[in-house]
Design brief:
120 residues; alpha+beta; Alpha-Beta Plaits; two-stranded antiparallel ribbon; two-stranded parallel ribbon; 4 strands; 39% helix; GGDEF_dom; diguanylate cyclase; transferase
Length: 120
C-alpha cells in the first residue's frame, strides 16, 4: 500500500486531493482539469501504478493494477454526492470492461445494471 501511495503522491499537483474512501477504493479530485486532461492524468497514473515495484519483504516484485472511473462537473452548483456517484458508475464500467483501465462517465452509458453485474 505504501508503494501505491507514493506513486500516486508523486503525480499530484498542489491543490489536488487524493484520499482513501475505504477498502481498496480511493478518490482523486483534480480541480481545473478538463475531462480530457483528467483522462490523460488517470491513464498516466494507471500505467505508473502498474509498473512492478518492490514492497518491503515482498518477493517477487508486487504488481498493482487499477480501474479508474472519471466524472466531471461542467456547470451548476458543485454536488459531491452526484460527482462521486457518476465516478463510481464509470469505475464499475471499467471493471465490467476488463479491469485495469480508465473509463469516463457518460449519461448514455449509465445503467443501474452495470453496478449490479459487477457485484456492487
Amino acid at each position: 500500500m505504501s508503494s501505491f501511495a507514493a506513486r500516486v503522491r508523486d503525480q499530484l499537483r498542489p491543490g489536488d486531493l487524493f484520499c482513501r474512501l475505504g477498502g481498496e477504493e480511493f478518490v482523486a479530485i483534480w480541480p481545473g482539469l478538463s475531462e480530457e486532461q483528467a483522462m490523460a492524468v488517470a491513464e498516466r497514473l494507471r500505467k505508473i501504478v502498474a509498473q512492478p515495484g518492490e514492497e518491503k519483504g515482498a518477493e517477487p516484485a508486487v504488481c498493482i493494477t487499477v480501474s479508474i472511473g472519471i466524472a466531471s462537473q461542467k456547470e451548476g452548483p458543485f454536488n459531491l454526492d452526484e460527482l462521486l456517484s457518476r465516478a463510481d458508475q464509470a469505475l464499475y464500467l471499467a471493471k465490467h470492461n476488463g479491469r485495469n483501465r480508465v473509463e469516463r462517465y457518460s449519461a448514455e452509458q449509465a445503467s443501474p445494471s452495470i453496478g449490479q453485474s459487477c457485484g456492487a
